Amino acid sequence: MGNKKIAVLIDSENTPHSKLNLIIEELSSFGQIIVKRAYGDFSAEQLKNWKQPLNELAIQAKQQFAYTSGKNSTDSLMIIDAMDLLYSQRFDAFALISSDSDFTSLATRLRESEIHVIGVGKAMTPTSFKNACDDFVAIENLSADVELEEVQPNSNQVAERELWRLMHQAWQTYRDETGWVKLGEVGKYLKRLKPDFDPRNYGLKKLSDFFDKYPTRYRIRNTKRSGMEFQLITKASKHK
């Protein structure tokens, strides 16, 4: 995952500038960031605090004055730039930083060209945009010092039940004849199933921490060839 050449396009009007550093750090785990551009009317009052983080992070500001009051003219510029960058054939992945569903079509178009699309936005980002991405990262999960027990509403019982259901579904799908499943395959499966899947949404730092919550339900083992594997503990398997 970490060797992609990435173009990062930021919808400044729908992104908190205070999270820019953490967003760039998160995206760096996917590969090498080649282009970093932020779009907006930086002469407007609401974007007055963007200058410093843009300079510090070497993000190119793409100024777009609003043609009409109440209309977001920056979306069009960001989409046009994205297509220009796509046609350059220089990039393996695009990161679209926005909580706006208007970029759903752009994400879909990029994926049709076999480009990996990473979305970053607020947890309340419309599902249409989330599902148009290969990966979606919730901004609320990005923190220099993540206090997982304070993540809301992700640490509630509803989220725990959802994760338990997803893991059981993955186990049923990928188990071998002896009931063992490779955790790496499960992680990829969950990403395909839910592009916004992130262990931090469920109060975990990493997916393997799930088994600490259910030590009597799953057994785990580590192999040199496949890494961590897990098996559902059934009445039959308890005696093996």
Automatic annotation (TrEMBL):
<dbReference type="GO" id="GO:0004540">
    <property type="term" value="F:RNA nuclease activity"/>
</dbReference>
<dbReference type="InterPro" id="IPR025605">
    <property type="entry name" value="OST-HTH/LOTUS_dom"/>
</dbReference>
<dbReference type="Pfam" id="PF01936">
    <property type="entry name" value="NYN"/>
</dbReference>
<feature type="domain" description="HTH OST-type">
    <location>
        <begin position="159"/>
        <end position="236"/>
    </location>
</feature>
<protein>
    <submittedName>
        <fullName>NYN domain-containing protein</fullName>
    </submittedName>
</protein>
<dbReference type="Pfam" id="PF12872">
    <property type="entry name" value="OST-HTH"/>
</dbReference>
<dbReference type="InterPro" id="IPR041966">
    <property type="entry name" value="LOTUS-like"/>
</dbReference>
<dbReference type="InterPro" id="IPR021139">
    <property type="entry name" value="NYN"/>
</dbReference>
